[in-house]
Write a structure and sequence with these properties.
It contains 3 helices and 5 strands, in the order αββαβββα. It is α+β, with helices and mostly antiparallel strands. Strands 2-1-5-4-3 form a 5-stranded antiparallel sheet, sandwiched between helices. Strand 1 and strand 2 form a beta hairpin. The chain is globular, with a radius of gyration of 13 Å. The chain starts with a helix and ends in a 9-residue tail after the last helix.
Length: 122
């Protein structure tokens, strides 16, 4: 399953210009806790700690959240944002995708987040 999730995340991130890193978190049990199961572009343990506040916000709100960051990206100089979105199947959260993007990518991220793949279907 992790290989499939990594492949899916890689495709998703390649579709959105401006994603600088992303992690998929999945619950270890029905009630949590959530652990990182897929990384883009590479598996880095420091991503988990850095992106965890967005994970917690999305779980607490039970919908997509956008955390605006004041730090600028090293490669672009653009402000960085972190978005997190629970992946629902019915009423249950099966995972959360958390991605860091440069600010100019926000419109593309909004487009993807508004698809049924991330929101509650129905």
């Amino acid at each position: 399953m992790n290989q499939l999730t990594n492949h899916w995340l890689s495709i998703l991130c390649s579709l959105v210009k401006g994603v600088t890193r992303a992690v998929v978190f999945t619950p270890t049990t029905e009630e949590g806790p959530y652990t990182a199961t897929a990384f883009w572009p590479v598996n880095k343990s420091d991503e988990v700690e850095y992106l965890s506040p967005a994970l917690q916000a999305a779980l607490s709100e039970n919908h997509c959240v956008l955390l605006q960051q004041k730090d600028a990206g090293q490669d672009t100089g653009e402000p960085l944002d972190i978005m997190a979105c629970p992946m629902h199947l019915g009423d249950r959260i099966h995972g959360v995708i958390v991605a860091q993007t440069i600010e100019e990518a926000r419109h593309a991220v909004d487009l993807i987040l508004n698809t049924k793949a991330f929101g509650k279907a129905g």
